Each structure stands twice: as structure tokens, then as C-alpha cells.
Amino acid sequence: MNSAMSMTRRDFLKAASAAAISIASYAGSAQTKKELLGDDEILAQCRARIERHRQSEGAIVLRDTAGKPVTHATIRVEQLRHEFRFGCNFFMFNRTGDPEREEKYRRQFAELFNFATLGFYWANYESEQRKPNYDYTDKVAEWCAQQSIICKGHPLVWDHPAASPRWLPEDDQQLEQLSAARVREIVARFKGRIDVWDVVNEPTHLPEDVNQTRMARWGKSLGPVDYVARHLRIAREANPAATLLVNDYRLEPAYLKILEDLRAQSPSLFDAVGIQSHMHDRVWPLRRIGEVCDLYAKLGLPIHFTETTILSGPRLGPGENWGATTPDGEQRQAEQTAACYTTLFAHPALQAITWWDFSDHGAWQRAPAGWLRRDMSPKPVYDRMKSLIRGEWWTKLEGRPDPSGILTMQAFHGHHRVTVGLPSGREITKEVHWQPGRQNRLEIEIS
């Protein structure tokens, strides 16, 4: 999101908050110990589920050149990257307005995240027809590649004013050609650098004509399923190996029905379900998070929480009227975010979580949404989440092989560095990819 999107999206948030309240929401500032009791029980269960779903047992095996066990060695294992995608939008790259703030923004982003969402909002990305802003995206993607950060593009197709340029033609056939060409060109151009896409954003709006843009009128004439399906097919042709998503915040039956109808057309049309979870006015109870995950997991596809927000400052009035971050709000944000992520990370269908936004500087709706303050200093939520993502959920262990030359270990899924220390002082270093559902075994020959 950005400031150009705020007016209509304000109504979106109102509807999303109402839907959450109807199921059972609560205001974070009004939580009591009694209300948190249920959450404590859920979190206690989550710890066992994280161990079951996010870790696997495996072995490091040491042998000499004759195939005999090597036992006089020390084995250190340290995780390098998570298999799970912990991400955030990366819209402020080169836009922080100050070299010192820019350095802090990038460094702290790379210290925590392995997944970055890059903006492709059509109205801004190609404000002048046939002049898309590829140069900027090239720079962001290059920097992310250097940090081993996976990139996702968001969104290719949306009926919102931010994604419906004013120069779009009135003729439906011409518009279809332009939209198809845009999806095809962008997905093909960034193949190998951006291989995850929110192809269509918020298709549940189309029957109701929420946005009243040129894209909305065309999409309504097609119907949401046809509108989504044709763009998914084009993206698939442009990059058969890409991970394609449909993304929405309206979690009522209309969205599920669209996804079910798409799956009925072809199970391979899209690869993951995008769930938005902006919690500007109400923080979801943990049971609500579990219910949403369970419901959409029935589709048999991975789930991405694509836009997650919990604030650290108060609302002062309607619209973009937010107070600055406060010490009490920051502490509450840290605890609520940790509980939210723990619940999501424990669910086996979850594949990715993307926060929205990393810093209060430039945040959507000018809200205090960031894990960093406007000056890029970290809030408590940054340190709290780092203690989870790079601490509690991060493999770091040391041990010695048994008489068979084997160290059996439990590790989080992802990439790890294995260092074998020998009595001579020599060290041997290897990397291993620990994967779910695999026989994770690394054999190292000691010469």
C-alpha cells in the first residue's frame, strides 16, 4: 500500500475489522488477564506444533577415507537461512531520504528477513504508458539477491485506483490486451529474480463495483473467476516455475468460493493462498488466526499471510489520523506480534508471513505500523521477533559424534553451515539444506 491507496482502502479496513469483530475480535489495549488465558493455552500448544512441523531429525556422519567412523571431532551446526519465509514489504528502498537512515533500514531488514515484497502498482509503476519503472526494481532485486533474500512482486492486477492508470482505454478488448501484455512482460522479464507473484489482488470487490475504476468495470464484466483465471494462465505461461498467488483481505465465503472455482477449473492455476491481516483497529484473537488457517488449508495449498499489521500507537480519529508510537503501545505491539507469529508458524499450512510496513517512515496510512521508528531505531517488536526468528526458531548446536561417527540432531528447516573441528585444529566446513519430509543426512569424509 501507499498514500495513493488510502482513501478507498480505509473503507476496506472498516469492513475487515467488522468481519473480524463478528467472529470475535478484541482491542489490544482492552485485553485483560482473563481474556489472555485462552491465548496462553494456544501458545503452549504451538510450541509442540512448531517442533513437529518446522523441525526434522537427521544426522551428520563422519567417515575417514577407508569408510571408518571418525569420533574424535567436534561438530558445530548453525542455521544460515530459514526455509519458512519471514518477510516484509520493501517499499522504502532508496526512499528513506537520508543516507544514515537508508543504511539502518537496509541492514536491519537483512538481519531479520529472507523475503521481500516489491511494489508493482500499475498506476505508479507505469504512470506514463510504455515507460514502466524497471530500473528501480532491477536495483532492489539486485540488492536482495546479494543478501539471499527472496523477492515477491505485488500486485500485477488490481481494480484499485493505484493499479488502474488513467490512460487505460475504454475499449475492453484493448484493455485486455494491455493487461495481458503487462503480466506477461513483467513475469518473463524478472524470471529467476522474482519468482513469487501476487497475480490478482482482492477479486472479491468486482461483483460489488467497490472501486469504480476502469479495471473494476472490465473485471466486473468478466466476473471474478474469469478475470483471475485468465491472468493466472498468462503468468504461468510466462514463468512455469513461478509461485502464483491470489490475494484478498475479505475472508468471508465469497473469497473461498472464488478460490474453489479456480481450483475446479484447474488445480495448477495458482500455488498458494494470499491472506491479508491488517489489524489497525482490532487485533485478531489467536483462535481467529487458527480458524482462518484451518479454513483455507482445506484447499490443499500453502498459505501466505501477505500483509500483516499490528500498530504501536493510537487512532486519533477517522481516516489517516494516527498518533505517534508510544512506549506502552510498543510493548503491546511486541507481545501481540510475537503471539500472532507463533500461532502462524505453528500451523503446517503456513509458508510465509509478510509484515506491512518495516518502518513508521513511509508506512501505509501514516500509521505507526513499523518494527522500526521513523528514525530507523528498533522498537521492542524488532528485538522480540529477532529473538524468535534468529533465536528460539534458529538452529545452533554443538556436539560430538557417537561411536558410529554419527551426530543425530533436530534442526529447523532451512540452510545450515556444518563445521567439523578436528584434534589437529583443522576445520572442515560444509552446507546442508534441511528439508521437511526428507531423509536429512550429511556425510563428510575426513582425509
What does this structure look like?
By secondary structure, the protein is an alpha/beta fold. The chain folds into two domains: 3-52 and 84-392, Glycosidases (TIM Barrel), CATH 3.20.20; 56-78 and 395-446, Carboxypeptidase-like, regulatory domain (Immunoglobulin-like), CATH 2.60.40. The chain is 38% helix and 24% strand. It is built from twelve helices and 16 strands. The protein has helices at residues 6-24, 33-54, 99-112, 122-125, 134-146, 172-189, 214-222, 224-238, 253-265, 286-297, 327-345, 380-392, and strands spanning 55-64, 74-82, 85-89, 115-119, 150-154, 157-158, 194-201, 243-248, 272-279, 303-310, 350-355, 396-399, 406-412, 414-421, 427-434, 440-446. The strands form three sheets. It has an eight-stranded parallel β-barrel with strand order 3-4-5-7-8-9-10-11, surrounded by five helices. It has a four-stranded antiparallel β-sheet with strand order 12-2-14-15, with no helix packed on it. It has a three-stranded mixed β-sheet with strand order 13-1-16. The radius of gyration is 23 Å and the shape is globular.
Question: In a few lines, what is going on in this structure?
Answer:
The chain has 447 residues and is of the alpha/beta class. Helix content is 38%, strand content 24%.
Which terms summarize this structure?
2 domains, alpha/beta, 12 helices, TIM Barrel
According to DSSP, the number of beta strands is 16
CATH homology superfamily name of the largest domain: Glycosidases
The CATH architecture of the largest domain would be: Alpha-Beta Barrel
CATH fold-level topology of the largest domain: TIM Barrel
Low-confidence stretches: 1-37
For the biggest β-sheet, the strand order reads 3-4-5-7-8-9-10-11
User: What's the end-to-end separation, in Å?
Assistant: 56 Å
Strand content: 15-25%
Order of helical and strand elements: HHEEEHEHHEEHEHHEHEHEHEHEEEEE
